[in-house]
Structures are given as structure tokens and as C-alpha cells.
Amino acid sequence: MPIEGLKCVNCINMSGIEDGELARDFEYDFAEDALDFENQLSEARDVKFTQNLTEPLSIGSHIICTGTPSDDLPWFAVNIGCGDPSRSDIAIHFNVRLPQCYVVRNTKRHDKWGMEETTAYRSFPFKIDRPFTIEVLIDEKEALWAIDGEHYCSYAHRNPSPLNATWVQVTGIRDAALKIQKTDIYPTLSPPPLAVPIKSDSNDTIEDEPKWHPNVIATIADGIPEGHQIVIRGRLRPMLHSFTIDLLDVAREWPRGNILLHVNVRAHVQSQMSRQLVVLNAWLGAWGQERRQRTAKLIPGTEKPQLHQTTSSKNPLQQDTDRDHPLFTLGV
């Protein structure tokens, strides 16, 4: 007498289901979710505010965009383009993707998009229902973007260039407002730069110690006196790529003053070597001749590496972790 095999109560009875088909009761409707998202994107595209330019953008042109992201629109964009806004070239597409928490920059020419850029100088600054102010500064070779008074990213001019733009458009923001003017400083909403405190010892603590953040510009009131040093502390990224230290004659993002000393540590260049590449230069109206040396010995992911810049010709910018091997030596 044939005995029917025991069946696990957790097993799914797929009898009556043809090969290649999935029972409707057990099907997850990915298409429905995708459709909902596509509808949101379509609605965001339909929410548009376009302002035609009365005169071409030029060096120093300053675009201010304000608005508030809403939770029913998954992204918004600021576009700077040429020709008919409905089907035209876009010189700069600044696309804020709230679900993914990043910003895409790109250019569209002849209905084809170029290579996306997503890197930025600070963390994602946008939040649902929180008003924002975006500043766009047009320079000779790039556009600078600031969010709420802090520089966020730069985007090199492509073809077409924003210098040939005829309109600016905001999509996906219901309360968007645009203002286009000229400026001689950027970002205009930036707070006064922090001042580097003077201490008798680098380990001393002082009242009202500044709260430093990445990519900071700070002032040195009276320069670096003889025998004094600048101490820079921070955490290196585990996947260390590069970082830069500049000594400037003016504390501002744009227009940049002279760079009296440019130190660029390029850890990504032949990263298998025991020491990282250091590139030294100066900008006095134009870049000078580079000086390259493989002298940095930085450990990615370490908590408190220290770099020292002194004004003594015998004391280099050096690492606390390796006093006998300076990052570089530069007489002054």
C-alpha cells in the first residue's frame, strides 16, 4: 500500500503551477513599487520653475536657489541649459537624490548624458521639509556650488558651457525661488572664518575652542611668527586617497588669493610603496614648478595623525608619528 510522504507544514504547495510561473499568492510585485517610484519621478519633473536669462552668464555670475524638499518627491534638480527647456542641452544638471543621500552632477548634449560626478567636499546637506539655499558661482573654468553658506562641490565646464546658457530651471521643488546677480565673493552666506588659536603648547585646551569641520578655511591673525608652528590633527580615511594643505594670503573660497604654500599628499599614486607622494607648489597668479618627493609615512584610518608647519628653516612640516622622517622640508 503506497504511503504518502510526510510534508513539512512550512513548505509551499506548488501543485497546479505550470513550469516557469510563480503562484500569485507568493509573488512580490516589484513592478508596482517601481511604478510608484516612476510616478513620483514624473511628478517631480512636472513641478518646474524656469527663469530665462536676460543676459549671458559670465565670470562672477551668482545664482541663488531657495526651496524646501517634500517627502512625496524623491529628488529635485537645478538645471542650467541652452535652447528650448523642454528638449535642449543642459550645461549643468545638479540632481539631488534624497533617498540615496547624494548629489549627481552631469551634462546633457544632443540627448546624451555624460559621465556623472558625485564626490563632494562635505556630507549630504539636504533633508525633507528643511529649507535650503543653493549658491552657484560661475567661474572661468568651473561652477562652484555652496549649500547654506558652505562650499559643497565644483563642476568643471563641459560642452555646452554654462557661459552659453539661456535659462535656469528648478524641478521637483514646489516653493522654488531663483535670484541671479553678480558677486565678488563666494559663498555670500558663509559665516566669518574661524581663527586659529595661539597656544603655548599644542596639547593645551582653551576656552571657546573652535569646532573644526572638514575642508575648513581659517585665519591666522598675524601670520606664523618665527619659532611657532601650525599643528593639524585629524583622522585619515581608511581608504586614503589624497588631501591638501594650503597657506593662503586671504581666507576665502573665491576668488582665491595667492597660495604661498601648496602641500598635496597623493596616497593613491603607487599606493603599494612604503611612503606616500608629496607634491609641493605655490600659486602666485599661476602655478610654479612642482616639487615631488616620496616622504610621507601616514597610516590610513589612524585617529590622530599630526602635521606641523613651522617657520624655522631647520624645522619641516613633519609627522608626530615619525619625527625622524618629515613629511617635507622647505626652507623659508
From TrEMBL:
<feature type="domain" description="Galectin">
    <location>
        <begin position="216"/>
        <end position="332"/>
    </location>
</feature>
<feature type="compositionally biased region" description="Polar residues">
    <location>
        <begin position="307"/>
        <end position="319"/>
    </location>
</feature>
<dbReference type="GO" id="GO:0016936">
    <property type="term" value="F:galactoside binding"/>
</dbReference>
<feature type="domain" description="Galectin">
    <location>
        <begin position="49"/>
        <end position="186"/>
    </location>
</feature>
<dbReference type="InterPro" id="IPR001079">
    <property type="entry name" value="Galectin_CRD"/>
</dbReference>
<feature type="region of interest" description="Disordered">
    <location>
        <begin position="298"/>
        <end position="332"/>
    </location>
</feature>
<dbReference type="GO" id="GO:0030246">
    <property type="term" value="F:carbohydrate binding"/>
</dbReference>
<dbReference type="Pfam" id="PF00337">
    <property type="entry name" value="Gal-bind_lectin"/>
</dbReference>
<dbReference type="InterPro" id="IPR013320">
    <property type="entry name" value="ConA-like_dom_sf"/>
</dbReference>
<dbReference type="InterPro" id="IPR044156">
    <property type="entry name" value="Galectin-like"/>
</dbReference>
<protein>
    <recommendedName>
        <fullName>Galectin</fullName>
    </recommendedName>
</protein>
<keyword id="KW-0430">Lectin</keyword>
